[in-house]
């Protein structure tokens, strides 16, 4: 199917969804207390842009959520990628560290959020630590898998041309594992974005997750829906950004 | 030095560090319970349960939620994904919603589900269903799309009907990716479950952890985390075993 046709059909289906949503409210099928209509959500957006929500501006909430998410994710990537590459190259490092990582990996981050709050308090530190611990095992495992699948021939070729171990790492192993590393980064970022909202529901005084949860106490479904739509759009934006960086950076994919 | 020595060295360093920190009183029992206390808490939970419910009941409650929500979400999501992969028009119509739902933090719509469906089982299972659906759909769609065209043509030229091609060529080829999607979905559902029990619950392992946290019983919290960790590993192993049984040809084509 042509691109423009699927784009048209997609827009058509979104438009139908919006119309159905509007009709549910307009025909009083469901009380507006339970489901605010599109117009209400738009009004809530305009209102929040002008007056903010309970002493916080919308920009402040968006920045708080994205900032926490990216801080935890970046810390995990900066530590996880080198560690994973090292584990992929050295059997000793693998044996010494991997079992700890593989124990952390399947743990749902929220299960240890209680502990992190106990240790670090309810501030930003416990949330960033939560995101770090959620993203770190995934990124490390991906980098390790990436380093392992680098063809031994290439490493040997570089060595026999006189490359130092450092050069082999930076010019052979790292580029060849980038593709796998990015898979890990994408999974980790999606997980971090989910966790940051969960953490904000439990203990926060700003952020989009906090806004949604706080609005739910007052049954403000217009603000809840606004928050959900914003979170969905930012989630899509974050994952698209990584895909674009991935494609730019690994321009040689499929052409090896 | 052999690799297992390195493993043993780290493990014993961690254990020694834990004992030193807790027994010397550098870190209060409140923050990190000593090994002995953890063991006692486990025995206590096994014998007396938590808050007048036996431990296995909390575990069973959590597992039932996971299986119902994941089962429904994966089944319907896979069906939708197969259709999306097979019929471009379904893909074009459904893709915007699936792509929007997939990166959306599950907890964001939990509050809406609670307002609509109450704090009982229905809202939790709906939440898990919605968490599993988009991942399964995308995996099944990509699985169908990645089926080798040469094989479909071979089947066509041998006179296979549309249904036969789907049943014997497309579906088996897509099954490996469907299983990968299912494992991803179980992970997401499992993480979401804890969240749903934390926000609105009176039973389940996730609820137990939060409730124990409120009373600063970090020994129960630790035991709960360990139980959740082992349950997660067991679930993943279960899916791997199912995959090995039903998609025994994966990676050997």
Question: Descriptors for this entry?
Answer:
heterodimer, A: 256 residues, mainly alpha, MetI-like fold, 10 helices, 81% helix, B: mainly alpha
Give an account of the 3D structure.
The complex is a heterodimer of chains A (256) and B (253). With 256 residues, chain A is an all-alpha fold. Chain A folds into 2 domains: 30 residues; 215 residues, MetI-like fold, CATH 1.10.3720.10. In chain A, 81% of the residues lie in helices and 0% in strands. Chain A has 10 helices and no strands. In chain A, helix 3 packs across helix 9 and helix 8 packs antiparallel against helix 10. The longest helix of chain A has 38 residues. Chain A is globular. The two termini of chain A are 29 Å apart. Chain B has a single domain, classed as MetI-like (MetI-like fold, Orthogonal Bundle). Helix content of chain B is 81%, strand content 0%. In chain B, helix 3 runs parallel beside helix 6. The longest helix of chain B is centred in the C-terminal third of the chain and has 38 residues. In chain B, 41% of the residues are buried. At the A-B interface, helix 1, helix 4, helix 5, helix 8 and helix 9 of A face helix 1, helix 4, helix 5, helix 8 and helix 9 of B.
